[in-house]
Specification:
This protein has about 260 residues and is an alpha/beta fold. The protein has a single domain, classed as 3-Layer(aba) Sandwich (Rossmann fold), CATH 3.40.50.
Length: about 260
């Protein structure tokens, strides 16, 4: 099983899933999101003042976060491996009248010079990166000294099935989480796309090993959508019917984990 084949399968998988994903997900272009049903940047205040900052969004999808950052005055660059996702991004940019540089690029080998960005943001993308260490090394390389890296990815507990009858998570082996095979989309050269679930200790250790200082790790419950008015629900920057159906599970078990890290000199 080659790294190239897996990465290509993930790219082809997102090309296939993109229209349905963009149709069924409600993702704000007014606030930076960190995961489904979670509070966004307006509430969490993780990024600070981004005005005139050079910002890179990794695994940007349709670039909703980059658009929100641009509205706050950032100079945003959005990279993704899927040309179909970037077509959706171009549609959003035209609709919004916003300028964001879109770059088709693999996050394991970034096409930028050293120390060029002040901030890197990634929301729900690292779980599709095969070689996490290579990707984080590249993030460290292109980030300026004292630059901020805010990364939200799937929580390792989200690898396990929720039992509706018991209202509990069924954990078979936390130390060996399953890998999700994308069997609902066609494989590439016999290889299915994958979602990788990494322990918090693995991700933390890798961040530190490449030179980041981790300042915060956040594990948050879903926002209380059942107690919110329709207008209040609009404050949730990433939502949709499929996620709302999982509210009970996500209010008890974190779906995302957020790392806030600094590139030290």
């Amino acid at each position: 099983m080659s790294d190239h084949r897996i990465r290509k399968a993930i790219q082809k998988g997102w090309d296939t899933m993109s229209p349905m994903y963009q149709r069924d997900s409600v993702i704000s272009t007014e606030d930076v999101h960190y995961g489904p049903l979670l509070p966004g940047e307006r509430d969490l205040c993780l990024l600070g003042n981004v005005k005139d900052k050079r910002v890179l969004e990794l695994a940007s999808g349709a670039a909703q976060n980059s658009i929100a950052l641009s509205k706050l005055g950032a100079k945003a660059v959005a990279i993704d491996v899927s040309p179909i996702q970037q077509e959706a991004a171009r549609t959003h940019l035209e609709d919004e009248g916003i300028t964001v540089d879109l770059v088709l690029n693999d996050a394991q080998k970034l096409c930028f010079t050293d120390n060029v960005f002040d901030l890197i943001v990634s929301s729900n993308g690292m779980e599709f990166i095969i070689d996490l260490e290579s990707c984080l090394n590249e993030c460290h390389r292109v980030l300026s000294t004292d630059g901020l890296f805010v990364m939200s990815t799937v929580h390792p507990l989200s690898a396990f099935a929720w039992n509706n009858e018991l209202q509990a998570l069924q954990i078979q082996d936390y130390f060996n989480p399953p890998v999700e095979l994308w069997e609902d989309v066609q494989p590439y050269d016999g290889q299915y796309g994958l979602t990788l679930f990494r322990s918090i200790s693995e991700t933390f250790t890798t961040l530190v090993s490449v030179g980041f200082r981790v300042d915060k790790i956040l594990e948050l419950p879903a926002m209380p959508i059942h107690d919110m008015s329709p207008d209040d629900k609009k404050r949730i920057p990433y939502r949709g019917k499929d996620w709302e159906h999982r509210y009970v599970e996500m209010s008890k078990v974190p779906f995302n984990v957020i790392y806030v890290a600094i590139k030290e000199s």
